[in-house]
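User: Here's a chain of 536 residues. Predict its fold as tokens.
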Amino acid sequence: MAKTTANDAAEVRESWLPMIVIAMGQMLMSFNVAALPVSMGGMVESFDTPPTTVGTAIVLYSLGVSGFILLGAKLGQRFGAKLFFQIAVAMLAVAMVLMVVSPTAEVMLAAQGLAGLGASGLVPTLVVLIANHYQGKQQAQAVGWLGSARAIAGVLAFVIVGFVASINWRLGFGLLIVHSVAILLLSFKLKPAQGKPDVKIDGLGVVLSALGIILITFGFNNIRNWGVLLARPAAPFDIVGASPAPLMIVVGILVFALFIAWTHRHARSGGTPLLALEVVDSPMEWATVMALFVIVGMEAAINFSVPLYIQIVQGNTSMATSMAMMPFMLTVFFTAILIVRLYERFAPRQIATFAFLLVTVGTAWLAFVVRNDWSVPAVIVGLVTVGLGQGALVTLLFNVLVTAAPKMLAGDVGSLRGVTQNLAAAVGTATMGALLVGLLGSLVMAKLVDNPMIPAEFKTTELRAEFNLENINFIRNDQLKERLAQISATPEQVDEAVRINTESRLHALKIGFLTLSGLALLALVPCRWLPTYQAG
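Assistant: Prediction complete.
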């Protein structure tokens, strides 16, 4: 025991400069994703598009990352982590230039798709670079800082973009161009990483993994427009009247399962698998991945729904969004850093279980106390409670994956983390958007039926002509009044429509938070397979 202590004491401490560069790379990606919902109001106005288009942008970015990250990891091994890190940052810089100059929503969406492709190369190299520069306790600290970098980028995005978006939403993405250039200049301080030209790329594995993830993502993203079960008019086709969206999700899961089976067979025959399945071959690792998927998906749902309500529903500024989200983002940031100190006292299973309970309680509390004022103490308490659990889980679960795999599989761990987090972000954003819009439509229609203030012939003629009642979306009360003023609605009918709109939006949000609470409670099941060891 004394010998181990002496070795620990003699452990060489490396410079933290490489970690700063690595963290800046993580912040570049996280800042971009966090800036999208904060810029929602400006984008909606600039492109004259529904707010759910911003959700589609997040989904496209996440799709680019999760769909091609396994390929990015192998390319990083072939060309070297340092060089591929630089190439990926350059791609993100180009994507941010497109964001700044985008004249239409379609160009903005293409820019986010390109950013996702760049991030698919950047994500796996971050873990490899940490493994190349740090060992032992310093490596554990570096992993914690990587998790906190993601959180601090969210904080900075909400503060900085919230301020500059009041001038022009494009300025926030312009700052990311400067950030990218700074990373490229500092990246030459990283240790050289020799490429391995003999690394083989499993072409069939690339196709299967990308196809499975694309089908799953597109299925979730189009549930709102195509229908949950029965096909809606917007669906491109139907299967005996059924919506193609759930079918795409099921087929995508089957294709991804086929990818796992193929990878096992390919590895047994002596080939180089696209993902080293040693990183997910135990129940503990699968449980960790499932828990990580749930908490990241919930974070994405919250980050999308709160700005949606503040900017689009209430008509407040992006700065108001920043102030409302600040308690949540700051709590996530500090918890992600400080949770490392609990590793020596509590096992991962204990920490994860308590953290999910915090998220369960926090989201349930928000469902009961949330009103149209996000600054009331009761709402802040709920956001802080959720942030405590969120920050602890993201760092803890990532650390479990890293410590469970040898250094040679660091790139595969990075790939697994990237696939899980970005697929979860896409699914969480798309599902929350579909849930809120679906609830809003159902609640509005329920309140319109047999409403004595609004005559039946008015609902079926003028109101239906002005509003697509089969595809209701979020709209501010002032916009609703403007549109109702164009038809023969009496002041009493306008007031009643505004009341229905206001109550339905708030009711939909409450049900959304309650749904998230139930999901966090279900996540306690995979926690049972998390490790019970303690540091040392």
